[in-house]
Write a structure and sequence with these properties.
Layout lengths: L3 H19 L2 H16 L1 H7 L6 H12 L5 H12 L6 H15 L2 E8 L5 H15 L2 E8 L6 E6 L2 E6 H12 L1
Parallel strand pairs: 1-2
Antiparallel strand pairs: 1-3, 3-4
Helix pairs in contact: 1-2, 1-6, 2-6, 4-5
Length: 177
């Protein structure tokens, strides 16, 4: 069976191209987010897996729930997903679309896990350093991981900078072996 991301990728790519051509990426982000929330509802999950519910009924229901929040293109996209039995992949489509959008807009999401809460000055310093290093705008999010002892782990896309005490101790342990 194909991985969910592999199945979702062509749909995300198609929507991204459509959004770029019509210069309405923000509108598509909103529509895809709403679609994802509709699909995530547990009552909708029951309908998605119910063989007695036709594609037409499912399409009509999702479009009715979205009401005026969907453009005609978003409604058509929903019809395509339902007819291809791919509606359940809406979360992966959103994730891929947003990654493509961020890349096109020169934005990178950075996750910082630290041993203690970072103040705004520390967050700004990390954001400025990563921005200078990658040449992109940075959106930073932080979490506290008490297991780190001290320092931080910074994730930006596929890059990971482990500046934690735990990471340094692990590195030292590996060097000694």
């Amino acid at each position: 069976m194909l991985e969910k991301t592999t199945i979702a990728r062509p749909y995300a790519q198609a929507v991204f191209e459509l959004a770029r051509e019509s210069d309405n990426a923000a509108e598509w982000s909103d529509a895809l987010d709403l679609l994802q929330r509709i699909v995530a509802d547990e009552r909708m999950q029951l309908l998605l897996n119910n063989p007695k519910v036709s594609h037409q009924q499912l399409q009509d229901l999702v479009i009715e729930i979205a009401a005026d929040n969907f453009s005609q293109q978003a409604k058509n996209f929903t019809r395509v997903l339902v007819s291809a039995a791919r509606l359940q992949f809406a979360p992966q489509i959103v994730q891929l679309f947003e990654a493509m959008r961020a890349d096109a807009e020169g934005i990178v999401d950075v996750e910082v896990s630290s041993a203690y809460a970072l103040d705004q000055a520390q967050q700004d310093a990390i954001a400025n350093g990563i921005s200078a290093r990658l040449g992109k705008k940075v959106h930073i999010s932080t979490t506290v991981d008490e297991n780190l002892i001290g320092g931080a782990i910074i994730r930006a896309g596929d890059s990971v900078i482990d500046a934690s005490l735990r990471g340094r101790l692990t590195e030292l342990s590996n060097d000694l072996i």
